[in-house]
Amino acid sequence: MKTLQFEAVKIAIKQDKTGYILTTGIHPDEVPEELLRDWVGARYQVVMVRLNANEQPMDRQDEFAAERAVRAAAILCRDPEFWEFLNDQGEILETNEASATEWVRSYLGINSRTELRSNQVARTKLEQLNKEFLNWKK
């Protein structure tokens, strides 16, 4: 059995009474001839892997972990108990969101929380910081 392999880009997705309709764009040089010859309505088993910026398969779990880290950093910096934790540790003098945010960015070595999406070292440090905070709360 020969498989068809090509790269496609998601253009749109919509729903009708029969299910979802995925529209993709395929570069003319990538379209397998067999696909062009098959009749409209032919059925396929489809396997898709999202590619990262380096043209490598993307691990979706890493993507979700990165988004969770961005949200966690924001939640921590807005938490008055976290401010007290940092104050108790001698890290900040003023217990407010701005001081906590500035300290967290400095501690993690980032300029913006969005850098947590691509900086695994900073995500690991944030996880450890959160553990220390949770232990402090007990």
Topology record:
Blueprint: E1 9-16, E2 19-25, H1 33-37, H2 60-78, H3 80-88, H4 97-108, H5 120-137
Antiparallel strand pairs: 1-2
Helix pairs in contact: 2-4, 2-5
Describe it.
With 138 residues, this protein is mostly helical. It has two domains: 1-48, no CATH class; 60-137. It is 46% helix and 11% strand. It has helices at 33-37, 60-78, 80-88, 97-108, 120-137; strands spanning 9-16, 19-25. β1 and β2 form a beta hairpin. The longest helix is centred in the middle third of the chain and has 19 residues, at 60-78. The protein starts with 8 loop residues before the first strand and ends with a helix.
Strand tally: 2
Q: What is the succession of H and E elements?
A: EEHHHHH
Content of β-strand: 5-15%
What is the domain tally? Answer: 2
Share of helical residues: 40-55%
Classify the secondary structure makeup into a structural class. mainly alpha
* C-alpha termini separation: 60 Å
The profile of the biggest β sheet is: 2 strands, antiparallel
The strands making up the biggest β-sheet line up spatially as 1-2
The global form is: elongated
Alpha carbon gyration radius = 23 Å
* Average pLDDT for all residues: 90
Contiguous low-pLDDT stretches (5 residues minimum) are none
Task: Specify the number of helices.
Answer: 5
